[in-house]
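Project outcomes to date are best conveyed with an example. Our students and postdoctoral researchers have been running inverse folding experiments weekly, and each run begins with a structure described purely in C-alpha cells. The record below, which covers 425 residues, was selected by the lab manager from last quarter's runs and is presented without edits.
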C-alpha cells in the first residue's frame, strides 16, 4: 500500500495506527455542536436502532417489526443467474454512464407501469437507489426549510426522516380504514395562507396501516392538488402485491403530473437497492441532475442484474409470492381474533405487508413494547410513524406478516395478547 510514499510518512501513519485513533470528544461538546448543520438533529436517533437493541431481550424473539420480503420469496437462483449475465455485459460498461439508469430496465419498468394504466415514456423514468432515494430527491428539489408537506398520520417512517432532514413543516392528515381523509385535508387547505409544496402519500397498501384509498378519494385528492397547485408524490412499493379485491388505479394513472415512486425491494430483494421514479419531463430532467449530485448514477452492474432477473420472470414469480403472503396475512388476522382482548381493532389489508392494530383504551403501544419484548415479541409502535404522537398513534402498532411463517405468526400474536393482558392487570 505504501508504494512510493516516503518512509518517514509511512512510519508516521503506522505509529498512529498502532496507537489507535485518539479519543474524539463526543458530539455533545459545544464545538462539535456549533459545527453541525441544523438538520443534523434529525439524525440523532433511528427507530431501527431501538428495535435492534430489543432483539436480544428474548432467546427466541418473534419480530413483526420488519418490512422486507419473505426469505422464501427472494428468487435467489434467478438473481445468481442474472448476476452472471450482468457481469458478462459489463465489459462495455465500466465507465461512468447511464445517468437515468440502464435503458432496457427503464423500458421494462415503463411496460409494467403501462399495464397498470400509467403511460410513461422511459425517458421520464429515473432508476434510483431504492424508492427511499426517490423521496429524498423530490424533497431536495422541492423543499426549502419551513415548506409544508402534507403527510399521512400515521406515515412511513423513512419519509418522515427525509422530510425532517430538509427541515419541512408537516401538515398531518389522519388516515382511516379507507386511507387519507381527503375531506379533512380539504378543510385544512382552506385555512392555510400558503398551500403546501407536496402531498406525500402511500395510497395502496399503506405503510403502516395496510389500507387502500378508494377511487373516489383518489379523484378528490387529485382535484384538490390541482386546485391548490400542490405536487403529489405517490409512493407505491406494495401495489403489485395484491392478494384479493379489485385493484384501484394508481394516482399516476389518473394524473400524469403525479410523481410516482416504485421499487424492486418488495418484489425481488431490498438489498439490490433498485427503485425508480417517474415524473413529468421537466421535473424528471431536474431530478436526474439532482441524483447526479448525490451519487452520479446507480450501479451499472446491479441495474443489469435486476433487468435480467425481472425480464420474463417477475410476473410468474409474483403469483407464488402473493399466495405465500395471502396465507400469512390470513393467519395473522385469525390469530388476532383468537388472542387479542376485546376492544382491540385492526385493519384488513388486501395486499402489502402490514396490519395496523389499535389497542383498547389506555394501552399505549410504546409503553407496552418492553413488556412485549420480554415476552418474546416485537412490533413497531404507532408513535414512531407520526410527527406528533396523538392518542390514536399511541395506542396503534404495526405488525408485518411478510417474513414470518405461520407457526411464528400464531405464537407471536399469542405472546402479544399475553403481554397486553399482563400490562392491563
Ligand atoms: C412506503 C415505503 N416507501 C419507501 C420504502 C423504501 O423502499 P426502498 O427499499 O425501495 O428504498 C419503503 C420500505 O419499507 C416503504 O414502505
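After processing, the design step wrote out the following sequence:
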Amino acid at each position: 500500500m505504501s508504494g512510493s510514499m516516503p518512509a518517514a510518512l509511512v512510519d508516521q501513519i503506522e505509529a498512529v495506527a498502532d496507537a489507535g485513533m485518539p479519543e474524539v470528544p463526543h458530539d455533545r461538546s459545544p464545538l462539535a455542536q456549533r459545527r453541525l448543520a441544523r438538520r443534523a438533529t434529525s439524525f440523532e436517533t433511528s427507530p431501527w436502532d431501538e428495535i435492534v437493541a430489543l432483539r436480544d431481550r428474548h432467546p427466541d424473539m418473534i419480530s413483526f417489526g420488519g418490512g422486507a420480503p419473505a426469505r422464501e420469496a427472494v428468487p435467489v437462483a434467478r438473481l445468481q443467474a442474472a448476476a452472471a449475465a450482468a457481469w458478462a455485459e459489463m465489459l462495455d460498461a465500466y465507465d461512468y454512464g447511464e445517468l437515468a439508469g440502464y435503458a432496457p430496465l427503464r423500458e421494462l419498468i415503463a411496460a409494467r407501469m403501462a399495464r397498470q394504466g400509467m403511460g410513461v415514456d422511459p425517458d421520464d423514468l429515473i432508476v434510483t437507489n431504492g424508492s427511499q432515494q426517490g423521496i429524498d430527491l423530490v424533497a431536495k428539489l422541492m423543499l426549502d426549510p419551513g415548506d409544508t408537506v402534507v403527510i399521512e398520520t400515521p406515515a412511513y417512517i423513512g419519509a418522515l426522516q427525509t422530510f425532517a432532514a430538509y427541515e419541512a413543516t408537516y401538515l398531518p392528515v389522519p388516515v382511516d380504514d379507507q386511507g387519507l381523509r381527503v375531506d379533512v385535508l380539504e378543510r385544512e387547505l382552506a385555512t392555510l395562507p400558503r398551500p403546501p409544496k407536496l402531498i406525500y402519500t402511500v395510497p395502496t397498501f399503506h405503510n403502516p396501516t395496510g389500507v387502500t384509498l378508494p377511487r373516489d378519494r383518489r379523484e378528490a385528492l387529485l382535484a384538490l392538488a390541482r386546485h391548490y397547485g400542490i405536487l403529489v408524490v405517490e409512493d407505491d412499493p406494495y401495489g403489485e402485491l395484491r392478494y384479493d379485491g379489485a385493484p384501484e388505479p394508481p394516482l399516476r394513472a389518473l394524473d400524469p403530473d403525479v410523481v410516482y415512486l416504485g421499487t424492486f425491494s418488495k418484489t425481488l430483494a431490498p438489498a439490490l437497492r433498485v427503485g425508480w421514479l417517474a415524473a413529468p419531463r421537466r421535473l424528471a430532467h431536474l431530478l436526474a441532475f439532482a441524483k447526479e449530485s448525490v451519487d452520479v448514477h446507480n450501479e451499472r452492474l446491479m441495474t443489469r442484474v435486476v433487468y435480467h432477473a425481472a425480464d420474463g420472470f417477475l410476473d410468474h414469480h409474483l403469483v407464488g409470492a402473493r399466495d405465500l403472503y395471502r396465507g400469512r396475512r390470513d393467519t395473522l388476522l385469525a390469530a388476532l381474533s383468537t388472542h387479542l382482548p376485546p376492544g382491540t381493532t385492526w385493519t384488513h389489508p388486501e395486499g402489502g405487508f402490514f396490519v395496523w392494530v389499535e389497542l383498547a383504551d389506555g394501552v399505549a403501544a410504546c409503553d407496552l413494547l418492553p413488556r412485549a419484548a420480554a415476552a418474546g415479541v416485537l412490533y413497531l409502535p404507532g408513535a414512531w410513524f407520526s410527527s406528533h404522537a396523538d392518542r390514536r398513534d399511541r395506542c396503534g402498532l404495526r405488525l408485518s406478516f411478510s417474513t414470518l411463517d405461520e407457526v411464528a405468526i400464531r405464537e407471536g400474536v399469542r405472546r402479544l395478547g399475553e403481554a397486553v393482558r399482563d400490562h392491563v392487570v
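Residues 67, 130-132, 156, 158, 202, 207, 235, 237, 263, 265, 270, 275 surround pyridoxal-5'-phosphate (CB under 6 Å). The mean pLDDT is 91. The training component of this project remains on track.
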